[in-house]
Amino acid sequence: MKKAVIFDMDGVIILSETLYQARRDTFFKQYGETISEETNLKLIGSNPSDMFHLLYGDDPIKESVRKAAFMTFKKEYPMDYTHVLSPDITDVLVELKKREIKIGLASAGPLKNLHQILKLHQIDHYFDVISSGESFPKSKPHPAIYEHTVRKLGLTPNDCLAIEDSTHGIASATSAGLDVLAINAHGYSIDQSQATEKIKSLRDIIPWIDCSI
């Protein structure tokens, strides 16, 4: 049996991508720009640095200026995470703890935001390790965040199962040597082909673990 489950935040613990896309659309509308559906799919699971490098990598000055403006914009228009908790996550966390399975979080989001979201939904006490992509020179799809989280849990990659939804997240976990369950991407056409297995619901995690003994 796996000894730990490491969750991503966005698209897994919270269903937040529609909020992020709406915020991106509002921001870029100020400049008379729109982000194509194809590009939006590439941005799922990325942090602001990766996002602006993808959009303006051929113009470093514009990339830097737009990123700075976006960071200010984020502070002026904070996200409301009240109603985006995945419906099954609390029950799954309870079942994992009953089985004495450690629980980690590996997300590209800022550490302060991660703690705020977990506390908002009163699930922070379930997590043994919380890792933020801002702590590493390279975020997902680089494996560093998963390698770090596994070490902090005191385990090996083979002991751990990752729960992801995005292409970047799946690549990060698989590169670190973890099995990965890819949760249904809730209407987004995301390449999840690198995952060990695809699941329709977070509730599918428990029987998968029970069968992996």
From TrEMBL:
GO terms for biological process: DNA repair. This is HAD family phosphatase. GO terms for cellular component: cytosol. One of its GO terms (molecular function) is phosphoglycolate phosphatase activity. It comes from the Bacteria. InterPro entries: HAD-like_hydrolase_sf, HAD-like_sf, HAD-SF_hydro_IA, HAD_2, HAD_sf, PGP-like_dom2. NCBIfam families: HAD-SF-IA-v1, HAD-SF-IA-v3. CDD domains: HAD_BPGM-like.
